[in-house]
Amino acid sequence: MEPEARIGSADFPPDEVLVARLRDGDEAAFVLLVDTWSGGMGRLARSFVATNESAAEVVQDTWLAVIRGIGSFEGRASLKTWIYRILVNTAKRRGVREGRTVPMSSLLPTDEDYGPTVDPARFLEAGHEWAGHWREFPAAWPSPEHAALSGEIHAQVSDAVAALPDRQRIVITLRDVEGYTSDEVREILDISAANQRVLLHRARASVRARLETYFATVDTERIGGEAVP
Amino acid sequence: MSDLDCNEFVELVTTFLDGALDDETERRFLDHLSACDGCDTYLDQMRQTTKTLGTLPPESLPDDARDKLLDAFRDWNR
User: Fold this and answer.
1) Is A201 on the interface with B (CB under 8 A)?
2) Chain B within 8 Å of A153 (Cβ-Cβ)?
């Protein structure tokens, strides 16, 4: 699947242009990168360290390392991937200092990441003529254009992501929130595409389940009931 | 008739969206999809979930942190 275009990416200069400008000390290029990527970097850093403040410092330290290291950037990975690798290393070192270790081994799926991602009670039980089929189909959701809900939907989704185990949160943050391809995530975190999928699938299913629960409430109480002012 | 059950279908969604199902499994997946409204809805909701995740607004760097970085960049290139 093609990664979806991110906002503003259309006019974003290619790596070789950006790198040349950074090496020339072009402030506008540096500000563009800092403004465009720091948000996503902070989100990822937060998965490795204990507090938001700590994550913000990791982002700053990463940019300082980028300033010092851009002269030796060789272009083997994309600029963004290179910066994200620095971020992950910086975040991990800091996480270790804070006693919040997310060692690489814990980024691999564990036993609890396998098994059904949808409650087995949603399906007809063994012995039934239609065993394994939906007991009741999932209820349709309100149309995504329902703008009045979008703020609350974002809040629900953010909460659901925050509640995931570290390894699932890190992978879904990179893949779905930041829009990285599985190849890029493999370069950043050194997790195989197959292992990413196990974590990503479970994480997506949890977020979907959260939205399902949420829509079930608003449907009856707000949209389906009295008119929303 | 497809030989894939709904509870198997739902576990293949992410691999399908990654384009990583083998040909035979993908055929069974699509056969089931075409015959099952419940799974059609489920697949669509997983897609919507992914799409919504991609629209989460990024947090921006606090102004003072941004200023400090810009100072560091200037110093380094002086």
Assistant:
1) yes
2) yes
Residue B65 CB-half CA count within 13 A? 20
CB contact A179 to B (< 8 Å): yes
Cross-chain Cβ contact B38/A25 below 8 Å? no
Interface check for A162 against chain B (CB to CB < 8 A): the answer is no
Integer Cα distance of B28 and A149 in angstroms:
36
B49 to A204: CB separation less than 8 angstroms, yes or no: yes
Helix count and strand count (H, E) for chain A:
8, 0
- Tell me the C-alpha to C-alpha distance, in Å, between residue B7 and each of A128, A191, B11: 14, 27, 7
For A39-86, write each residue's pLDDT tens digit: 889 888 887 887 888 889 999 999 999 999 999 999 998 999 999 999
Give the number of other CB atoms < 10 A from CB of residue B42.
Answer: 24
The C-alpha of B35 sits at a distance from chain A's nearest C-alpha, in angstroms, of: 12
Residue among A35, A134, A157 whose CB faces B53 most closely: A157
* Contact yes or no for A172/A161 (Cβ under 8 A): yes
Residue B64 buriedness (CB in 10 A; 0-12 / 13-18 / 19+): exposed
Give A107-155 pLDDT, tens digit per residue.
Answer: 788 888 888 999 999 999 989 999 999 999 999 998 766 656 778 899 9
Residues of A in contact with B11 (CB under 8 A): 116-118, 201
CA A178/CA A44 separation, integer angstroms? 9
